[in-house]
Amino acid sequence: MINAFLLIGQSNMAGRGYLQGASLLDHPDILMFRDGKWQQAHEPVHQDRSFAEAGLCMSFADTLRQDGRQIGVVPCAMGGSALDEWKPGDELFENACRQAEQAVQAGAVLKGFLWHQGEADSEVLETAETYCERFLAMISEMRRRLHGEGLPVVLGELGEYLENREGSPYWKEVNAQIHQIADGRRGFAVVSSEGLKDRGDILHFDTPSLRIFGVRYAQAWKECAAQLGISLE
To answer: Which parts of the sequence belong to the Sialate O-acetylesterase domain (predicted)?
Structure first.
């Protein structure tokens, strides 16, 4: 049985790490859902942009598959997307639900939601300080739609390097809101971005950092799943 994880958010979930010179994590037990079927995963997993490259999902899957399980990812992140573009009824939300449903019908069991987004919401104070409320409204409906109310939701912090980016003055507020989402809420976990670096554009994580980030996501999912009594198939 394929243990499926829905990948949602913007470019740092889709993956913008450079592949040249990177170690590949391809493995027969790491799958991706593409063109309506499960197939062996290879980077770039996302096809949201022509310049999509390495992401965090391969090291995430590689960490979990070492327990002898098949891990499948359903890539639905979209570079540049703001949280308001993920509202129920809008294209990104509906596509993610549709892809997840088809992935399950093709032989998988949904095991969690992986989210990384917020750079687009760090530009204006209003979107930054309302992030928690808006995210919870979105993910609650997505979990309900996919019968995943009891599944882990793992969110990652924005990169600390945004301190040096003029276009993200409220990144710390977004990170505070991300922590507020998980604080006291069963089934939610936040992954630290401490020590992770950008690829040179003060916006996207570099490939080594994405590999580390993916492992952290896997560890956070394991801890959250254990609390919920969820295990891999």
So the answer is: 3-221
Closest CA to 46 of 98, 84, 86, 99: 99
Could you give the C-alpha distances from 57 to 63, 86, 163, 221, in angstroms and in order?
10, 20, 25, 12
Both tokens of residue 170? 């409220």
Domains of the chain: 2-228 (3.40.50.1110)
Question: Residue 176 belongs to what H/E stretch?
Answer: helix 171-182
pLDDT, tens digit only, all 233 positions of the chain: 999 999 999 999 999 999 999 999 999 999 999 999 999 999 999 999 999 999 999 999 999 998 789 999 999 999 999 999 999 999 999 999 999 999 999 999 999 999 999 999 999 999 999 999 999 999 999 999 999 999 999 999 999 999 999 999 999 999 999 999 999 999 999 999 999 999 999 999 999 999 999 999 999 999 999 999 999 99
What is the identity of the amino acid at 140? S
Q: For 48-113, what is the HEC assignment?
A: CCCCCCECCHHHHHHHHHCCCCEEEEEECCCCCCCHHHHCCCCHHHHHHHHHHHHHHHCCEEEEEE
Q: Which of 88, 60, 90 is nearest to 74 (CA)?
A: 60
Residue 226 CB neighbours (<10 A): 11
